[in-house]
Amino acid sequence: MAPGRVRPPPERIPSVSAQLLSRLRTAAAAVALSAASVLPIATAQSAHAAAARVDNPYVGAGVYVNPEWSARAAAEPGGTAVSDQPTAVWLDRIAAINGVNGSMGLRAHLNAAVAQSQAAGRPVVFQVVVYDLPGRDCAALASNGELGPTEIGRYRSEFIDPIATILADPAYASLRIVTTIEIDSLPNLVTNAGGTATATPQCDTMKANGNYVTGVGYALAKLGAIPNVYNYIDAGHHGWLGWDSNLGPAVDVLKQAATASGSTVADVQGFIVNTANYSALKEPNFTIDDTVNGTSVRQSKWVDWNRYVDETTYAKAFRDKAVAAGFDANIGMLIDTSRNGWGGAGRPAGPGPKTSVDAYVDGGRIDRRFQTGNWCNQSGAGLGERPKAAPEAGIDAYVWVKPPGESDGASSAVANDEGKGFDRMCDPTYTGNARNNNNMSGALPNAPLAGHWFSAQFQELLKNAYPPVGGGGGTTDTTAPTAPTGLTATAATSSSVSLAWTAATDNVGVTGYDVYRGATLVASTSATSYTDSGLSAATAYSYTVRARDAAGNVSAASAALAVTTPGSGGGGGSAGCTATYRISSDWGAGFNADVTVTNTGASATKGWKVTWTFAGNQQVTNLWNGAVTQSGSAVTVLNAGYNGAIAAGGSTGFGFGASYSGANTVPTLTCTAS
Ligand code: BGC
């Protein structure tokens, strides 16, 4: 097969289809709580209009823990290891808006989310899946919905409109509402309609009548008009749309939907990939660029000319292509990591042998499915990365949209009043079709209807979790991470302190850090830096940081860091200082310099600030005994916590390293004391 082919050959179409069917979901959680973003809840509630959108809703927020899922998970042996994780609420039929059979409806969930936000004293992301398009699930049967292909009017008036009315209630204005818009449908139009080898009659109908496109446009416009709603459209997964011949058309159809029915691209905050699917977050043992004896991994049976090997590379590329197509440059991606962990005994420890490209890929791949087109209740899968905010540039969060333990579809026909059909991709004895390249389905046996609790699958996901979880039937991890080291203040203003530290290590991996100001937990973050805001000028603070792992083990505290914020007046009184600058070494491309700060006032300083403007392109790369910010050629250095006080007539100093090219002129310094 030539890589440049326009359409995928029939053999690889299956991969495409994985998509179609996939209907997994769950959502994720982010952690960080930032002092700066702790809105007074009463204020936020009373002023709906005040809830301006932030770039990434997961940063500085907690994520709603669905009490119904949490209780089901906690009732499973070992389930309490993960039952406090946030998962998405699914609106999969009109009746779900008010609650089905006594379960919580949308308002009940939103009320609970507001309560969680108030209890935690921080904003909360509420994740909701909007999933009831006419003629839903056109290439599979397990999640067929209640609305027929032409019932777009009911979709608008009985589904989207009532949801929008509830979400717009000022009582929920303090929440950050993240929607996952209509999984599977738009991708199905790309690969399973209009003359493709895997086209189905229902997908052809939906392509012809346009109701997926107009329905998604309507949902985006209606929900996007609510200021605290963040819309993320489903964008399949790499094993569905990762072929060149699928990706461009997918971006096109998503753009078409995003500009239909009154919607504009401004109604879209991003896209979600791998929703309710099993594609690996990262394949650690091979990349798309690897070759074996001159043969590209793209030619392996598993990769089959796909352009991507995992969701991380796919999500980033998808984002770039969407921006190039006219979506906002600030869009972010979500990745559903609820069930793509692939740990357990079957996980390869390293790359496969380089005896052939197939041996190399099959020996090393962590995704143990028979084929990437398989999507139903996959045997051998595990829980993936725990929900996490801003794990990488361009990725807004890892989320658990598909609630782990909820079935993808029944393994045999089951009578029901939910509109759900029987799809043989959920039958473990099924030998496949064109959409999975005629492989076995890989589905677990004895599965209930889609969305119903499937205890055996939950146990399997716990057992094979990666990163592993404690108490999941495997070994319980009780090893705490090492304490973070190297805690420093990288900048301080009269109202904020920026901290950075060195990553801690752990036997199964550090998942995040807790930042304490004195005894108060001010942030939980997956990053190794944090800015603590809302502080008072000329005040001493003490910080420590602890590391956490996936099993909940917490490290000892780092060494404490004392920081005194500078005075807000920038000097004044009788305080005064001078600063001298000396280049101590210069090797042409870089240099080190020392700055001496001398108190010329009559009394001790509380803090000091030295500023200058470089004449050339000098860039400070590291600085000790002070906190530096550089903006273009302008540099500001504030005292560290321990050297702000200089006795009258006394001196202190700081040093730094910098890079440059051209001339290295000594700048003129300005010193201000408080
Ligand atoms: C089902 C939905 C369910 C969702 C979450 C889907 O496969 O069709 O009814 O809410 O999964 O588990």
Automatic annotation (TrEMBL):
Residues 483-568 form the Fibronectin type-III domain. Coiled coil: none annotated. Residues 1-49 form the signal peptide. Transmembrane segments: none annotated. GO terms for molecular function: hydrolase activity. Residues 570-674 form the CBM2 domain. The keyword Disulfide bond applies. Its EC number is 3.2.1.-. Keywords: Carbohydrate metabolism, Cellulose degradation, Disulfide bond, Glycosidase, Hydrolase, Polysaccharide degradation, Signal. Pfam families: CBM_2, fn3, Glyco_hydro_6. It is an enzyme of class 3 (hydrolase). Belongs to the glycosyl hydrolase family 6. This is Glucanase. It comes from Kitasatospora cinereorecta.
